[in-house]
Amino acid sequence: MSDPAISATGTKKVTCREKGRFESDTVDYTASPLLDVRELKKHFPVRTKDLFRPARDFVRAVDGVSFFINPGETLALVGESGSGKSTTARLILRLLEPTAGEILFEGRSLGRLGPEMMRQARKQMQMIFQDPYASLNPRLTVEEIIAEPLQIFHVGSPVERSRKVSRLLDIVGLASRHAKRYPHEFSGGQRQRIGIARALALNPKLIIGDEPVSALDVSIQAQVLNLLKDLQEEFGLTYLFIAHDLSVVEFVSDRVAVMYLGIIVEMADKETLFRHPLHPYTQALLSAVPVPDPDCRRERIILPGDIPSPVNPPAGCRFHPRCQVCREVCRREAPVFREVKPGHYVACHIRGQGSEARGRKEEVGDGGQETVDGGGT
Ligand SMILES: Nc1ncnc2c1ncn2[C@@H]1O[C@H](COP(=O)(O)OP(=O)(O)OP(=O)(O)O)[C@@H](O)[C@H]1O
């Protein structure tokens, strides 16, 4: 077993990395990722009426998530509401303590850093929030909002901070005369630019965007997404981009990880994921994306029911109660998240076989019956 991470550009570099997190037949390795998330879990206790009794149930919001992001790339995290995307982001930023698992930033485990090292690591990771109205303090001027992280980390003198704010405003396409104004004087897109300027203040390496454009009008979304792309190029930023909207994901991402009920069910580079999705859940998500060209339209797959409760996730494959290709094994066993082609990982008993393994399986037969062939939609 080896960890066959392939870089976004497809270059395969051999470095010695921990083995065994992903099941794989290939032996390709990548350069050190900026962020390496390993078997991350967050289980929130469900409080009973009796406050003194320990919780018996847990919300398994994140339940064994592994992924990596290489420097300078954008990994999009997609999935229905409640699949655990925001919790994953908050765990990475240590706004929440993980129940289990490890987060490595530039090769160092965040859980093992002392307070001062953690403080330094925090400077390197910033967040852009979904709601540009709620995320900015209405009592502070734009200058105070953007300079706040600099002040907290004691960076520069007041004059230097003021100069930096002007530079940041310029970088995000706002004028320095805006510095003395308050958030309510700006449009949604402008406010999001202020949020981006604040996120850039400490020269971070990683920016986590939690639905950063979903509250904006479509025309403004495009401007903010273009800005984020330009900034990435200019400053070599690495993004973890959380989004519902797959058209946005297709525009911004290099690779995509699909989350369902606390786990990642599929991860691949953008082209592979959008053109050859394997997991029935990914196929259903993509089938809902509007496509202008009628020749390229996919048949819409309507998933039955809602996402189940993360307190009692279904046994076996978590997706099986809603899956159109479910077989007996899916009810019994959780599928391994394994690499089926270089860089393409899937957790599915039916679709998560390499072509060779699938051929062998079909020869032998497993007694199951696919009800619908949703492959290659
Ligand atoms: N502090 C908490 N205590 C208990 N349960 C929580 C807590 N935070 C999140 N959850 C639960 O964890 C699950 C995952 O939530 P999360 O917000 O991470 O999902 P999401 O994919 O980001 O959804 P959305 O897109 O709606 O934000 C949900 O069932 C949510 O109710």
From TrEMBL:
Enzyme class: hydrolase
ABC transporter domain segment(s): 46-286
Gene3D superfamilies, per the entry: P-loop containing nucleotide triphosphate hydrolases
InterPro entries, per database record: AAA+_ATPase, ABC_transp_ATP-bind, ABC_transporter-like_ATP-bd, ABC_transporter-like_CS, Oligopep_ABC_C, P-loop_NTPase
UniProt keyword terms in alphabetical order: ATP-binding, Hydrolase, Nucleotide-binding, Transport
Its EC number(s): 3.6.1.3
GO BP, one annotated term: peptide transport
GO MF annotation list: ATP binding; ATP hydrolysis activity
Region annotation Disordered: where it falls in the sequence: 356-377
UniProt xrefs under SUPFAM superfamilies: P-loop containing nucleoside triphosphate hydrolases
Family: Belongs to the ABC transporter superfamily.
NCBIfam families referenced in this protein's UniProt entry, alphabetically: oligo_HPY, PRK11308.1
PANTHER family linked to this entry: D,D-DIPEPTIDE TRANSPORT ATP-BINDING PROTEIN DDPF-RELATED (PTHR43776:SF7), TRANSPORT ATP-BINDING PROTEIN (PTHR43776)
Name of the protein in question: ABC transporter
Source species: Acididesulfobacillus acetoxydans
